[in-house]
Design brief:
The chain is α/β, with parallel strands linked by helices and 329 residues long. 43% of the residues lie in helices and 16% in strands. The protein has twelve helices and twelve strands. The strands form three sheets. It has a seven-stranded parallel β-sheet, sandwiched between helices. A three-stranded mixed β-sheet has the order 7-9-11. Helix 1 crosses helix 6 and helix 3 packs parallel to helix 4. It is globular, with a radius of gyration of 19 Å.
Amino acid sequence: MIRKIAVTGATGHIGANMVRGLLNGGFEVRALYHNKDNRRALSGLAVEQCQADVLNPDSLVDAFEGVDAVVHLAAIISLEGDPEGKVMKTNRIGPRNVVQACLACGVQKLIHFSSIHAFQYSARDPAVTEAHPPAGPASFLYDQSKAAGEREIMEGVALGLDAVILNPTAVLGPFDYGASYTGQMLRKLMQGALPALPMGGFDWVDARDLVIATIAALQQGRAGERYILSGHWASARQLAELCGHFSGQKPPRLELPLWAVLLGLPFLKAYSKLTGERLAYTYQSIMVLKHSNRNCSHEKAQRELGYRPRPLKNTIRDIYKWYKAEKIL
């Protein structure tokens, strides 16, 4: 019986939703955080807070002692490569340390969050499924790091650990206290602050649907299996129109082909340095849009976990309501 769950990366976007969803599901939660000054997502919640570092094995053993299951979310998302090596280290060594701590503490179940980017696929593929090969040497470093993290999890499975891998697409949803890449884009759209849109799109999934899938995976996910958790493909234009429907802001009229966005990158970088703002687009994010597949299949998750993503319109509506409640807009 799984009652007490440790969540790494509990202060991140998925983590904030995960902790709330697990609490609502009647579970006891030990919320792991790395930076003690970055715990706004946990404020007011009836959780046990625990400081830990996925690159410090001893801290993980202490954090996992006495829990029934672990949900491993802590990772670095990067659309700008890995210039300092932190992305690969965190996303590869982190899962290795989590696996070893789970084995040392007798944890019953591990749910590891990977990414759709751990697979090697193209826009031409009829569908992206769990049978696709892992990201290889020609893939972006972030993609390689997520594939490497999965290999560490499978090493743990070979040693007897009951571990399941979840592969979400691009995540949207409320409780985005840290302004994720997608959250930053949505805020700008709802504020009417984006002058133009890139052509192309991606598959978007609600963070709360990931929580529902996690609870199902804790109960019936098969050890060593991967489950793609996709939502709905939508273009940047469609996202902008949904944001405008709720915010009242008109979507940008200008829509640029991706080659034109690439030409504008040097100017965006200069603007970013002047203002200190995160880049709105990077070479990697543009390539992600260019090569996105419109059919990231969640058929396996639907069949085995009962997974059914909610309509994208409902997600954007709830994000807007949360922004208004938090006085972000």
